[in-house]
Design goal:
This protein has about 210 residues and is an alpha/beta fold. The chain is built from nine helices and five strands. Bound molecules: cytidine-5'-diphosphate. Cytidine-5'-diphosphate (CDP) binds next to helix 2, helix 4 and helix 8.
C-alpha cells in the first residue's frame, strides 16, 4: 500500500505541532516534527560548548558524530534553544544533514500508513511530491500570545513583548535565508489558523478526505 505523506509548513508558533498531532491521531499517520532535529543540534552545540559564531566549528561538529532523532524533551523548547536552532538553520550543510536524515527515516520506517511532517521547508524542499501540502497562516500577535502561554505553562519566565520581538526576528531569518527559505510551497493549501482549532481542523479534514 502506498504511504501517504502530508506536509505542514508555516512560521514560528503557528500551531503546526498541535495540528500535526491531531492529524496523526485522527488519520493514523506517524508525526515527524522536523523542528526537533534543528533543536537537538542546537542543544548539543550548547552542551558541547561549541562556538556558535564559528561556522567552521559548527561544520566540524556536524560532520563528526551528530546522531539525530525525533526524541522530544522539555529542554528543547526553551527560548535559548529556539534562538540557536534558528541561527544554525541558515547553513546549507546543517539543512542537508537534517534533510538526509528525514528522507532516510521515511524510507526505512515502512510499518505505518504514512507520515505527517511539519516544519519550514517540508513541502517546498524535503518532500516536494507529498500527497497533501498545508501552509499554516496565523498573524504575528496570535502567534506571540500562544508562544507566551506555552512558555509560561512550561515554567519559563517570559515577557509578551520580548516574545513578539523574537517571533518577528525569527520570521525574518526564516524568510530571508538563502537556503530553503520559508515560503508557501508550490501546490500547497493555505490554512487559516487564526480562529478556533475546530475551524482549522474542519478545513484540513475536508482536504484529507479528498486524498
Ligand atoms: O515551534 P517553532 O515553530 O517555533 O520552531 P520549530 O519548528 O521547533 O523549529 C525550530 C527552528 O528550526 C526554527 O526557528 C527554524 O528556523 C528551524 N527549522 C527550519 O529551518 N526548517 C524546518 N523544517 C524546521 C525548523
Amino acid at each position: 500500500m502506498k504511504k501517504i505523506i502530508i506536509t505542514i509548513d508555516g512560521p514560528a508558533a503557528s500551531g503546526k505541532g498541535r495540528i500535526a498531532e491531531y492529524i496523526s491521531k485522527r488519520w493514523n499517520l506517524k508525526h515527524l516534527d522536523s523542528g526537533i532535529l534543528y533543536r537537538i543540534i542546537a542543544y548539543n552545540i550548547l552542551k558541547k560548548d561549541i562556538n556558535i559564531d564559528s561556522i567552521k566549528d559548527i561544520h566540524k561538529f556536524i560532520i563528526s558524530d551528530t546522531k539525530l532523532s525525533y526524541r522530544k524533551f522539555k529542554k528543547l523548547r526553551s527560548e535559548q534553544i529556539s534562538k540557536i536552532a534558528s541561527k544554525i538553520a541558515v547553513f546549507k550543510f546543517v539543512r542537508n544533514h537534517v534533510n538526509n536524515f528525514q528522507r532516510e527515516f521515511v524510507k526505512k520506517n515502512l510499518k505505518n500508513n504514512g507520515f505527517v511532517i511539519d516544519g519550514r521547508d517540508i513541502g517546498s524542499v524535503v518532500f516536494k511530491n507529498a500527497d497533501l501540502k498545508l501552509y499554516i497562516d496565523v498573524n504575528e500577535k496570535n502567534r506571540a500570545k500562544r508562544r507566551y502561554k506555552q512558555l509560561i505553562d512550561n515554567g519559563e519566565k517570559s515577557i509578551y513583548h520580548e516574545i513578539l520581538k523574537e517571533i518577528k526576528l525569527r520570521d525574518k531569518k526564516d524568510k530571508l535565508r538563502k537556503y530553503s527559505p520559508l515560503v508557501k510551497p508550490y501546490g500547497s493549501h493555505m490554512i487559516n489558523n487564526n480562529k478556533s482549532f475546530e475551524n482549522t481542523i474542519n478545513q484540513i479534514n475536508k482536504l484529507i478526505k479528498k486524498i
